[in-house]
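Fold this complex.
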Amino acid sequence: MPPAVVLVTGVSRWLGGALAAELASDPAIDRVIGVDTVPPSPAVLRRLGRTEFVRADIRNPLIAKVIESASVDTVVHMNISSTPAGAGGRVPMKELNVIGTMQLLAACQRAPSVRRLVLKSTSAVYGASPRDPAVFTEAMQARRVPRGGFARDSLDIEGYVRSFARRRPDVAVAVLRFAHFIGPRIDSLLTEAFRLPVVPTVLGYDARLQLLHEDDALAVLVRATTGDFTGTVNVGAPGTVLLSQALRRLGRVAVPVPAPAIGSLSRLTRSAGMVDWSPEQMRLLVYGRVLDTRVLREEFGYAPRFSTSAALADYGRTLVPVVAPELVDAVVTGTTAVASRVAGHATTVGALGRSLWRPREPDAPVVPGLRAVRDV
Amino acid sequence: MPEARVIPLHPGDDEPSTPAPPPGWDAQLADVLDFLRRRMTGNYDTDEFGFDPDLTDHVVLPLLRPWFQRWFRVEAQGLENVPDVGGALVVANHSGTVPVDALMTTVALHDEHPASRRFRLLGADLVFQVPFMGAMARKMGATLACNEDAERLLRAGELVGVFPEGFKGVGKPFSERYTLQRFGRGGFVTAALRTGAPIVPCAIVGAEEIYPMLGNARIAARVLGLPYFPITPTFPLLGPLGAVPLPSKWFIAFGEPIETAAYGPGAADDPMVVFNLTDQVRETIQHSLYSLLLQRRSVFS
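Structure:
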């Protein structure tokens, strides 16, 4: 049964706006209500269609009134900030993430109309450490529990959602643990970093990355909102790339930085307003993380359209490579051609030299068609 | 009159017996350039464990081959005991101060096994903490020694290698050479039981003598965060020259596979079955170590 009234938090950002627009274009859904603290940008606003925008802070009890008065039956919680810069500092970020979620869940608990909750979570809850198994399934937990930043917030949020699910067993709860988003339009940690012409990496480490194309992320969110999946699911594209490999494919120049210098470098990029990475996110770029997506394909019932490589290539279309693959191709083809020409000359000269300088040895007589025969 | 049957005296007589001429330097250069192009543009595949077959085949294995063929003159025995397809768990003794034995077994299984099997090693978490070593280990196909990874690889039909002695084996003093240390907690047996993969016991002789560890500088090890800091007759006395391994003669013997499928996956939760299998594997390896040592005429020939 499709939802009648959907409330989407965090609608002013790209993914939230795209989800609201997608839901609004579905005639089976009566109302789509978008909530955010900041009004959506004109570009997002144009796409939102018949979505009703409510400028509200989910940290404020006002959100309960919105849910109750519109008798919302499905809540999609996406208002989770991954970088302090987006929320105006680490303290407001934690408040928005953790207190905001608590307020929202409290409002949902009081509203009898709510029967479905979708949480946009992250694979960061698995942490990143050298003791990690290569591939995480939903049943696994972080070997080294993330202590700060976005990962810690996400762990707390998942904890609150689990306890909400215990208190309201009649509400179906879907927790989506997304891999890194990538794509031409979405803003994420990686898309930001890969736009730098020269990308700092950690010397001596090469992380395994699993990505997810923005179109697949959107499709999964729509399916989770309108479908009936309950439980936790890892959402990632099939296949992985190494960080060094991804940078080479995008034509970026990697600059390996020794691990002790990374901290001061990230402070520098943060103050320059370029890339804002927490230590937890740096750990991810050191050790990498891969998700098992069997549940996504078999139980959730979605196969991503883009593999990790295809998603990366689609994102790469929007970048101007520093090291152009065409240039590398041209250099290789040119050198190979020159080498074979030189080799051709060298063989001719060599053969000439041999025929001039060395007396020809008489070849063994070759009699055609004769072979050893044994009578049976 | 029926014609006499023609029987070639040498099979394959019809084909020219001369091997294909080695590719000219220009073809080799073209291969190298093509490899460099793939590396520059990232146009190669890696798997979810970080295994990079392109790099392994074109850089790592060619670098290891001279050591395998000339320096240690490794003789691989019983390769027929390693299945051509499907998952199997190779369990070997660990020795040599530096885990060269793992690298040589990788070369043996790739170059001398008829199916050119990839050896997917399981390494301690310390390996993946250390810069360069961890990244390189993953690119060569290694992953963390934990049940999740071992079972995932075995289910995918990979040939998995494990050294249950761990640092206890590789960092043991020279006086204890060829005596197996304790075999962990039997985690490798539970991985094999859960996936029904056969266990192939493997005995490696020769690796003990490459860096005879006479002493262990405990303070240096603690400062550097290492499990041990070796003192050999040449290291650290001769500096970097002391890091050249002694050219001992190696044997790598693969024993008959021990089937685990008959126990059923439930047996992984039966500690008695796990202990017995662990002991059986350990005994088998210890016995083949002794018989290989009897075969060996001297350490260096």
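Residues 325-357 of chain A form the longest helix (33 residues).
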